[in-house]
Amino acid sequence: MKGIVFKVDYNGALIDIGAKAPAHLPLQEACIFKLKSLEEVGLMPGIEEEFLILREDDDNGRMILSLRKLQYDLSWERCRQLQSDDVVIRGKVRERERESLILIFHSNNFFSLLGNFHRH
Can you give the three-state secondary structure of 51-119, one letter per residue? Predict the structure, then answer.
């Protein structure tokens, strides 16, 4: 859903989506990464953006929107594309347990057996 940012504060942003009430984009839903402010991702009044509806209605009668979920979906799609192209990737190891690893690539967590990895 497209919308235009018209107010930004420390909690997030209000988005004009053409409905009676403005939608709300909480700060934690603005990006895959943890943010201190929306300016870090370039969201300011007047910016038009594509959003995903997270919830239809909050306590104030507003839709809750997300960019984070949209970014995760795009990131997973990119990972699936890399897998189908049989591309070798580099990721950061988050955790190691006996015969397996959990690694981070494109902000996604992956589980794999140690036998699937080559050390460089």
Answer: CEEEECCCCCCCCEEECHHHHHHHHHHHHHHHHHCCCCCCCEEEEEECCEEEEEECCEEEEEEHHHCCC
CA distance 76 to 88: 16
**0.85 cut: is pTM over it?**
no
Each residue's pLDDT tens digit, 16-70: 998 888 999 999 999 888 889 888 888 999 999 999 999 887 666 789 999 988 8
Q: Which amino acid is at 98?
A: R
φ and ψ of 107, to 5 deg? 65, 15
**Average pLDDT, whole number, for the chain?**
82
**What fold does the segment set 2-69 form as a domain?**
OB fold (Dihydrolipoamide Acetyltransferase, E2P) (2.40.50)
Domain boundaries, the chain: 2-69, 88-120
Percent of the chain with pLDDT over 70: 79
Cα–Cα distance list, 58 to 32, 49, 65, 83 (Å): 22, 21, 11, 38
